[in-house]
Every structure is written in C-alpha cells, then in structure tokens.
Design goal:
This protein has 13 helices and 13 strands. By secondary structure, it is of the alpha/beta class. The chain folds into 2 domains: 188 residues, Rossmann fold (3-Layer(aba) Sandwich), CATH 3.40.50; 170 residues, 3-Layer(aba) Sandwich (Rossmann fold). The strands form 2 sheets. The chain has a 7-stranded parallel β-sheet with strand order 3-2-1-4-5-6-7, with helices on both faces. Strand 6, helix 4 and strand 7 form a beta-alpha-beta unit. Helix 6 packs across helix 11. It is globular, with a radius of gyration of 21 Å. The two termini are 13 Å apart. 43% of the residues are buried.
C-alpha cells in the first residue's frame, strides 16, 4: 500500500507529546519493511529528525497557517501522490479527504467543559479549531486510533462511535531513556545547580495541576529534613510567580528552578539525576513521561485518574491529584523509606518492558492492512 502519514510539526525544534508520538512511530514503521511505502507529509522546520529510505519519502508542504495546511495543502498533496489511505496523527484531519482516512484521536479534552480560556491566543484558536473539526470528521474515518482504554471508552461514550471503528494502541518510549551508569553533571547544571533534586513536568494547561503540585511541594518543604529543590520543566518564571502568589506560597521560590523548555536529548540525564519525578496530572489520555522516568529508574508519583493507572500499573505510586497533602505524603515516604524507593525503581524498570514504539508501529501496520481490505 501507499500510505500518507501526516506529521505536520515533527521538524519543529521544540517538540511536544503528539510530535514525538508521530516521529517515533514513523521511525518504527520505517524499520518494519512491511511492503508499504510511507509518504510523510510535514511542514518545513529546522530539526531534520527523519531521513528518507527505500520505503519512506518526505513531502514538505509550505502553508502560512495550520488550518490552511491541513484543509487545503494536505488533501491536494494526498490526491497528487495517489496514495491508498491517509493517516492523520494529531486529533484533526481534512474535512474532505480524497482517500480513506485513519485518525489518531489522542483525547477529547477540548470537547469537555473547561474552567477558563487558554493562556495564549494561539492555544485558544487551536481549541476552537479542534472543537469545530473533530465532530465533523469522525463519521468519515474508516478507523479511529486512540492511546488508552480509558480514552477509548470516553470517546465512544461522548461521541457515540461504533465499537468496530475505534481501537486503542498504547504509546511507547524512546530507548535513549534508560538507566545511566553515570550522570553527566554538565547537563544537569544547564538547568539546576544541584545534583540532588525533584523533577516536575509543569505546564500552563490546568490539567497538568501545577498549582496543587507547587502547594504539595510547599508542604513537603515544611516536613522534609532534606528539602530537595524542585526543577520545573515547561513553565516560565512569570507563570511560576503567578501560581506562587495564587497559592500564597511565595516563600518557596528560592527552592525552585524553572528553565522553560528542556531539550529532549537532556531529559534522560535529568530523569536519572532526579530523586523522584512528579506527574500528578488531573487528566491524561496516556502519559509518556511516566514511562520515560520509569525507564531511567526514577520513582514516579502520578495521578490516580484517567489513563495514568493504565500506564503506571497497579504497583505504581498513584495519588489523588486534587490533594496536595497526598502528593506531599508520597514524596516524604520516598524520602524516608529507602526500601520503598528502591522497590519503586525496580518496579518501574520492569513495568516499561510492556511498552515500545515497535509494538505501536506493528499495531498501526495491522490497522492499515485491515482498512485496505475494506
């Protein structure tokens, strides 16, 4: 089969969750040599993170905005290539696809009630775009892929999708996330001037639960004898300051380090160096950072909601993300009970063996084959 694989943003420098899912899956499909030829459709960018091969071609499409790229440039290119199907990987797709459509619908958070507007105009416009597009394209999809059983059930219930048209395929993690024999202190010092710290993947999105996590950290500081500093990824100084004032915990500011975006190649070192990784999110369709931290031998404190129990498993540290005290208690237990921390390290290293991008790609290839036979 000739398959068009939409991966619009994978060449951008600052990649995020869905970008890595698309990139890692493409790399594994490229290795399968399953008889298919993949045309990866992307927007131009500086990070040339993918190379062509005998079974993979890269097609760059220039367009001033994402909606125009997806609704105009993408279907025109797909028609010109004469492919057998189009797989769109980031929740949305052309309203008029010239070939059978497969869609990866990571979540439907944007169709659920929200507490406030998005923090930026770009995110707000994206929210409205997804709310408009998703309900209109789902009836046209031959197959809908989502990333967890939790999200699969949510989508089915909310949008009345027939069972046979939606399936869940778990994400994987890149093998460069692994237990390191030695941590490079130069990499750590790029982000925090301490060798022993806690690590939190923050965000301005309310579902990441940054305010309660900082509140939990303030409780931890009051009760801890060690008082490890906290490294916060993806939250800028002004956003952190606003949250501290909101929670009336500005006194913890000297313990916080917030460098903003952290390069993916540096994350394995930071996970390995961290005493624990905080991921007490309110809502996740999957939660790849849980796997990344576990693969590095780092204990993870995750929320007990949505898909996170599926990923972390029954033996993981799952807490009520609405309770700062519960988050702080889990941190303190890791700090005070060395045997518990060691058991969590061993558990995580074993747990991640259940997930890989190779398994993800193999499941995709089977879906393509089934759609091709319809």
């Amino acid at each position: 089969m000739k398959i068009a694989f939409e991966a619009q943003r994978i060449f951008r420098t600052n990649k995020h969750g869905m970008d890595f899912v698309a990139l890692e899956t493409i790399r594994q499909l490229q290795k399968l040599h399953d008889g298919n030829h993949y045309y990866v459709l992307v927007a131009p960018g500086e990070d040339r993170c993918l190379k062509e091969s005998d079974n993979l071609s890269i097609v760059e499409l220039k367009c001033p905005t994402y909606p125009l790229w997806e609704q105009s440039a993408l279907p025109k290119a797909v028609k010109k290539l004469g492919v057998d199907l189009l797989h769109c990987t980031s929740n949305t797709a052309p309203l008029q696809s010239p070939v059978p459509l497969v869609l990866t619908l990571h979540d439907i958070i944007y169709l659920e009630p929200r507490l406030h507007r998005s923090p930026s105009l770009y995110q707000e416009m994206g929210w409205h775009y997804r709310r408009f597009i998703v309900p209109r394209i789902l009836p046209k999809c031959r197959k809908i892929i989502t990333v967890s059983e939790f999200e699969c059930q949510r989508i089915q219930q909310a949008l009345q999708i027939p069972t046979g048209r939606i399936t869940s395929v778990y994400n994987g993690y890149n093998p460069h996330f692994r237990l390191l024999e030695k941590v490079d202190p130069k990499v750590v010092k790029k982000y925090i001037p301490h060798s022993d710290f806690l690590f939190f993947l923050g965000n301005t999105d309310s579902k990441k639960n940054s305010a309660r996590t900082l509140k939990a950290y303030s409780i931890y500081l009051k009760l801890s004898e060690v008082k490890r500093p906290l490294l916060i990824a993806d939250l800028k100084e002004e956003a952190v300051g606003s949250l501290l004032r909101q929670e009336n915990i500005t006194d913890i500011d000297p313990y916080l380090y917030h460098p903003g975006y952290i390069q993916n190649q540096d994350l394995p070192t930071l996970y390995n160096a961290a005493f624990a990784f905080l991921y007490p999110s309110l809502r996740e369709s999957f939660g790849i950072p849980i796997l990344e931290a576990m693969a590095c031998g780092t204990p993870v404190i995750a929320g007990n909601t949505s898909a996170m129990p599926e990923v972390a498993g029954a033996g993981g540290i799952l807490v009520d993300p609405q309770s700062p005290q519960a988050i702080a208690d889990a941190l303190l237990r890791l700090e005070r009970e060395e045997s518990f921390r060691q058991s969590q390290q061993a558990y995580g290293l074993e747990r991640v063996k259940l997930f890989s991008w190779e398994k993800t790609a193999e499941a995709y290839a089977q879906i393509y084959q089934s759609v091709g036979k319809e």
